Amino acid sequence: MDIPKSHPRYESLVMRERIIEGYKKGIVALAGLIAHGRGEAFDYIIGEETRGFARKAIRAAAALMLLSKRPVVSVNGNTAVLIPEYLVEYSNLTNIPLEVNLFYRTREREEAIYRFLKSYGAKEVLGVYDETTVLEGLESWRRVVSVKGIYSADTVLVPLEDGDRTEALKRAGKRVIAIDLNPFSRTSIAADITIVDNITRAFPLLIKYTRELREEPVDYLRDIVDSYNNKETLSESIAFIRDRLTALANAPLDFK
Ligand code: PTJ
Predict the structure, then answer these.
(1) Which end of the chain is more exposed for a tag (fewer CB within 10 A), N or C?
(2) Measured between alpha carbons, how far is 50 from 11 in angstroms, rounded to an integer?
(3) Residue 18 forms part of a structural domain
(4) What spacing in Å lies between the alpha carbon of 213 and ligand 1's midpoint?
């Protein structure tokens, strides 16, 4: 579908189109369309902008990924089609592998996502053709993980996630960074760093902060991670929603 650039909701419509096309190509799960809609609703509520609480979390995430010995980025269907160019740019910049890890797992979808990421120039995509094993304490298909990737990782970045795995990853002693527009989700609560923002805005910013921070000494990065408090950041995001809704309720016609 051709979306005119002048359309007031251009960005949002382009993203919808990516999800729909991704579904038709066998990359996005049917439930991924529903998940996207939930994300859109939360994005509407925060005003479709990256807020201060998200910037703080993205900077801490950039620092933690740089400090980690074996970090990995987990990729599902929605993430693959929404931000393939940024996933690949980040992975190639940092040499951090991408790992395909699906909730609605089928061999066809895994291979389609692998090919899709490769077509964008990804160097290392795990979880499809390399050795896999099982992550204990998880019932869903997400328990099947790459030996080289999530299984032996110390930090896992999980953009757009369902709740169970974050808790299982935590039990396995890993640090988890989540990107989730819903600050009330189990993922958001269980993660060490929760970025309450749209992955389409958060990832470019993660790349920008990574470029800046990788020039800095290790102690500087440690300070950023040690002084970060996820509970506080989540509280800030919820307070922001409360205050924004109160302001809108008092002056609905000023809505922008
Ligand atoms: O590709 P698969 O098989 O691994 O399946 C992926 C989905 C997303 C279908 C699966 O993980 C799922 O069902 O997830 P949930 O439980 O619907 O959770 C998705 C979360 O992501 C929700 O809290 C949404 O608010 C949030 N979300 C959706 N779109 C975005 C988002 N967060 C950030 N950026 C988005 N663009």
Answers:
(1) C
(2) 14
(3) no
(4) 28
